[in-house]
Every structure is written in structure tokens, then in C-alpha cells.
Design goal:
15 strands; alpha/beta; Aspartate Aminotransferase, domain 1; PyrdxlP-dep_Trfase_major; Aspartate Aminotransferase, domain 2; 365 residues; 12 helices; seven-stranded mixed beta sheet; 2 domains; PyrdxlP-dep_Trfase
Length: 365
Amino acid sequence: MSMTKLFSPGPVMVKDNVRRALLHYDICHRSHEFEEMFVDTQEKILKLFNADDSYYSMIVSGSGTSANETVLSSLFQPGEEVMLIRNGMFGERLLEIIEKYQIPLVDVAFPWAAYPDLNVIEKAMADHPKVKVVAMVFHETCTGMINPVKEVGQLCRQYGKLLSVDCVSAAGGQNIDVVDKNISVCTSVGGKCVGAFPGSAYVCAKKDVLESLTAKQCKNVYLSLYKHYQTALASHQTPNTPNVNLFWPLNVALTNILEDETLSGRIARYQRCAEIIRKGLTAMGCRMLLEEHLSNTVTSVFLPQGVDGARFLSEMEKRGYTFYAGKGDYAKQGLIQVANMGEIYEQDCYNMLEVFQLVLRQVQG
């Protein structure tokens, strides 16, 4: 059995009971047993986002991108505009979806790793009254930055906009209070901070937004938010055959958070692990990409001058540790990403840093 430790931002290390849940006996997705589990999972998703009874959740079979596409392909009537705030690769992923569905766009773009300027954002809102939805990423994973969701939510309240937030790498790792942050719609997936598997995505949205949808305005058949909402509401099921085997691990992972570790406990663990990693890497001469607005679960660092990033990652993988290379131009600059999502604990971080230092000395020598 592989003992590889995934210090990567998805897929993640999972708890044993989550892995065992994959072996659940065969079940029909139109059965009463499935429906009970579906409803229980929906309720747990709402708790994950600190949602009140004005919100409703749905589960989409696919990656986090499938949840984002479900939302963005469904929210708009002809002529309605979206304003996209982006500062990294996953903001650009949202841009790709928006452009594919030809949604009229107000593009508020900032450089990668630049914290969004709220004055620029407010001016864009004031100048574009036709904007219905403001879309952004909570945790921009390509840099590890946490974006100003609460502040943007306040602006959306002031200017009468809906706020749609990609929480794919944030849910379960950051404090997301959809009520406090005025988030109308948000998305995530099991295979990140929640500690389940890829392919179990979900949407949490205000009921009044969902009630306003029509079948016609949804531009995708499988990823229709209208179909997912109406089917879940009427029968506690999904409109098409879901990946049933992934529902059980998602439910168990959410239970682990909410009833065992607690959401605040998990966030605190992630914060402790990130602090250990950042102190250790800095002491070895690695330069942090970000000095502030850092997430609890992803650390982006530049390896010391002269270290070949690809060789370093390969040598670490041989020793049982998997990281990510930097995205885009960052990879050429020797940036790597060390994540502490899922079943990563403090001692795992100390152990990893010992190996990290040994490999760094080897590749520098």
C-alpha cells in the first residue's frame, strides 16, 4: 500500500472511514435509502456554509468546475450581465465558462497574486447597472490568496447585485458564513478541504434565487440548476443518475467535520499546520509568494536560487511527498505549492519539513 502523503491542494488525504464509505453496498439512486442520505447530506452542506433556512443545497456529480458551470450557465436571462472579479487561474476558469455561454461580461481583472482593489470594484458596480451577478473566487488556489468576499458582499448589498462565489478550495478550510458575507450562491467539492473525493460537487444558494429560475434560461442539460433544484425539492434525488458511490464518502466526511472535529476545530488545525509549514520553509531560504491574505491551506513559495523545481518535486515524490508545481509563469520561477488540506496533521508537517530540508541540500549540492 502506498504511503505517499499528498501535500497538494486536491485530491487530498482522506480519513479511513471516508475511504471505507466507498465500499458501501450497491444502492439504487431512486430508493428511499438514497433519498434519506441525500437529504442528510444537503443539511450538512448548509451547516458547512453556516447557512440559515433561506438557503438550499444541491449535489452535482462532477468536479468543482461542474458546480461553477451549473451556476453560471443557469442564472442569466437574455441581456443580463455578469461582473467577474479575477486575480488568478481559477478566476480565469470562471471567465472561460462565462465566455463559452456568451454571457455579457464586465471583466474586473487584476494581476495574479494582486489583492483586488475595492475602489475599482465599486466603480465597476456603479458604472454597470445591468450587472445581475458578481462572480469571484474565495480562495484563489493558484496563489493561495483569500479574496475580499465579505467586502464585495457588502458592495453587492449596496448596489443590489447577487454574489456568486467559487468556494471550491475554501469550504471546510476557511470561515464561510454565507449570511454574514451576503453570498447568494456558492459552490464547492468534496475532494478539497472537506476531505472526501473528487467528483462530489455541490451548490448552496438562496431559495429566492432558485425559485426565480426557469428551465429555459438554463443553457446546459446535465448542469441545469433549475433541474437540480426542482428534482431535489420534489423527490430528494438528482435529475440524472449521480455518482452514487461518492455520495456516501461526502456524507461521512461532512459528518467527521460537523460532529467530530467541528468546523472551527478543523479550521484551527489547518491554521496550525500552515503556520508550521511557512515557518519551516522560510527558515530554509524559501521566499513566500504572499505576505498577507494567505489561506489556511495552501502555501506558495519560491525554492532557493538555483534549485531545479522539477527535479526537487521528483525527489520529494520518491520519498513519499507530493506537492504541486506553480501555475503559469510561476513554474518557470521555481515556485511550488505545499498544501495542508485533508488528513494532514501537525506531526505530518514536521516530518515533511525534515525530508524537504534533506532533499533541498541534495539538489543544491
